Amino acid sequence: MTTNEYSQQQLAAQPIGHWAREAANLVIGGLRTALAEEHLTQPHWWTLNHIAGAPGEWTREALTAKLTPYDDQHTDFEAVYADLTTRGWLTETDHRLTLTEAGEAGRLRAHTRNAKVHAAMRQGIDDATYAATINTLRHLVANLGGNGDLPA
Fold first, then answer.
1. Contact 57, 96 (CB under 8 A)
2. Nearest in space to 139 (alpha carbons), one of 18, 20, 14, 24
């Protein structure tokens, strides 16, 4: 896909809210569509990744507390845990969550689908430009009273 070229003056006059919202809607929509092919939601994805990154360390309560601030869907995380358990993707021992082999395989399939969305999004954008964009958005958020720090 190609886009037209514009002067710095034309670009600087653009409403950031419009472009930030448009980008967010398209990125989130693309990721949600890719995850839906695995019958997953974003909260499923977050859950799988956090547990994979620290197997046997997360409790339901701690993971729910970690993920809730990112959730715009009013997710019932207990339902997410139940779904992943029913699929045979998640086990719980001594209140600690671990992915099964099937869960890790599903996570990797979803990762491959998400990677395609990210590759399409980043087409024609080098790392330096992408990093500068993220840094600019961080500063905009901080300037408006939000938290400009990277997520932990």
1. yes
2. 20
Please give the Cα distance from 60 to 43 (Å, whole number).
Answer: 13
Amino acid at 62: A
User: What secondary structure does DSSP assign to the chain, as a single string?
Assistant: -------HHHHHTS-HHHHHHHHHHHHHHHHHHHHHTTT--HHHHHHHHHHHHSTTT--HHHHHHHHGGG-SS---HHHHHHHHHHTT-EEEETTEEEE-HHHHHHHHHHHHHHHHHHHHHHTT--HHHHHHHHHHHHHHHHHTTS--SPP-
The model's pLDDT over 136-148, given as tens digits with 9 standing for 90+, comes to: 999 999 999 999 9
Rounded (5°) CA angle 110-65-62: 85
- Smallest CA-to-CA distance from 16 within 148, 127, 141, 120 is with 141
Written in H, E and C, the secondary structure of 27-57 is HHHHHHHHHHCCCCCHHHHHHHHHHHHCCCC
**pLDDT at site 2:** 64
